[in-house]
Amino acid sequence: MIATIRSEWRKLRFRPAFFVSAGLVTAITALVYFLSWYQALHPSTGDRGAVNILTLFPDQFVNQVMGAGAVGGAIAIVLGAIYAGSEFSWSTLKTMFTQRPGRLTVWAGRVVVFSLWMGIMAVALFVAGAALSTVVALFQGHAITWPAGIDIAKGFGVIWLIFVVEGAIGLGLGVLIRQSAAALGAGLIYLLAVEIIAVRFIDSINSGAYQWVGNLFVGQNATALTQSFTSPAFGRTIAPAISAEHAVLVLAAYGVGLMIVAAGLLRLRDVT
Amino acid sequence: MRLTTTRPATPSVIVMENTSTTIVETHGLTKRYGSGVLAVDSVDMSVRRGEVYGFLGPNGAGKTTTLRMLVGLIRPTSGAATVAGHAPGHPSGLARIGSLIESPGFYPYLSGRENLRVVADLARVNQKRVDEVLDIVELSTRAGRKFGTYSTGMKQRLGVAAALLKDPDLLILDEPSNGLDPQGMAEMRKLIKDIGQGDRTVLLSSHLLGEVEQICDRVGVISNGKLVTQSTVQELLGEEGVLVRAQPIEQAQEVLTRIYGAAAISRQDGAIHLKTKPENSVEINRQLVGAGIGVSELRLFERSLEEVFFQLTGEKQGS
After folding, report:
1. 8 Å CB contact of B121 and A6
2. What end-to-end distance do the CA atoms of chain B give, in Å?
3. Burial code of B9-47, b = ≥16 C-beta within 10 A, e = fewer?
4. Are residues B143 and B127 in the same domain?
5. Contacts of A97 in chain B (CB under 8 A)
6. Is B117 in Cβ contact with A10 (below 8 Å)?
């Protein structure tokens, strides 16, 4: 297993798609911070789009970066699909499966390294958030105070979990479809269209009688989990329909389930 | 089984060394794909330790499918196989097998050397071995270039290098000359010959008859998924003999029958095929000329592997 992890890390650390993704997450965070800063300093007349400058200071940076969960999740799907699918298109799966470790060991090593990379992406997001909030505070002459360590850890855990679960969708699709392009297309369509339509439809049936079904979808739970990180500075008062505990359990179940299904497919199917 | 002690200074370290004569053995190995296509049909094949075994067959005959089954990439529909003492795909067996199945599969964004390091990690091989195998395949100077920029020949060489990383007992190479130019093919042949020296077993699949004839000790011929024959190259080619063209041919046959017996003689395409040693040519010539027969051609007769192959597979030469 250690050998497999070392091997996976060796090839992933040079993979351009993963560097680009970490850079993209950082760039998007910077863009959101700067646009929000501009909006806070140039408020519009209505309530729409109003940004409280207090949300951009370091003590709120964990709450602020939670907003990147959705974008980061989409990037994670793309990465998962590329990571799993390219092994088929490059015929590297046969190279891996004809070395010493068994198929499940190889897969387990891949999952560990992928999860580790999702952690790196989450670190990039948090470092960017912390740095940008510091820049805003310095320019605004605001005192630099940080959230409690436990809040940072919780926030990091949530973002990592969302990235891993969304990434697992990409990984699963990559293994199922056995190529990258179709897998990432299918993953993004699911995340950005199919799930939203399905949840709206389910919620509309029988005056919301089946809303509990809608509450089992990945996107719903990921959103609820990120929304559980808020503060009065953000002006939100409505509690999410799904509790944080429920969301963590559902997301963890998706992550584990998808990894197991993908492992089963890899174990049982011929490598042609 | 032979008992071999290792590191004499260390007491009671005894390794059971498997000295079985076959390293690959299949019984009724069959693969039928979901589409109903019978790719491999009851193949009984045996590869002996230390030999270079040629697995011959036309394109689509079932060579690659058979090899994929041997390394555990695909599961047989029925039948059994033992490879390096284990079921195909078993980690202990894979530890002793190096393989290059069809095209080499590497990461295009990594250099040749970095690709080998990835494989070495996976195979639990010391990283020092990477430079050794790069030397063997003569890729050391270009190992720093990205795999995606490699020529077909370099890719094939890197594939062979990866297969050699484990210093395997059994090397399975599936059409390693595919896509190579004549010089590349010659270099690959030389490389395989070198690799096949000593105790290592090489199982080489190819549809290039010349390649197999030059390199292999034994061959198996597969056609339409069935193994139609398996023997040494010499057995397959049959006994060598002498071809005689003479006038009058009937009289020449009578003379030769008297000397060598009817069983040694056959007629084909207006010539006499005589099963005898080529060094008897001088005597044959003397006998025929002494009998007043004009000899127009007298030469060594040997069937080429190509002729045998086309005969066995039922394919037409030049088609």
Report:
1. yes
2. 49
3. eeeeeeeeeeeeeebbbbeebbbeeeeeeebbbebebbb
4. yes
5. 72-73, 89
6. yes
Residue B11 falls inside a structural domain: no
Tell me the two tokens of residue A184: 């990432």
Token digits of residue B73: 């990439």
Looking at beta carbons, which residues of chain A come within 8 Å of B99?
A: 98
Question: Which tens digit of pLDDT belongs to each residue from A35-68?
Answer: 888 888 887 766 555 667 888 888 888 888 888 8
pLDDT, tens digit, 9 for 90 and up, residues B2-44: 333 333 333 333 333 344 689 999 999 999 988 889 999 999 9
- Determine which of A64-78, A229-243, B176-190 has the lowest per-residue pLDDT on average: A229-243
CATH number at residue B82: 3.40.50.300
| pLDDT of B20 | 60
Residues B26 and B94 in one domain: yes
* Inter-chain CB proximity B101 and A98 less than 8 Å: yes
- CB atoms B122 and A101 under 8 Å: yes
Same domain, B232 and B251: no
Across the interface, which of A100, A102, A271 has its CB nearest the CB of B74? Answer: A271
Q: Which domain holds residue B72?
A: 17-236
The H-or-E segment that residue A121 falls in is helix A103-140
B166 within domain boundaries: yes
pLDDT in tens, A178-195: 999 999 999 999 988 898
| Co-location of B134 and B167 in the same domain | yes
pTM comes to: 0.81
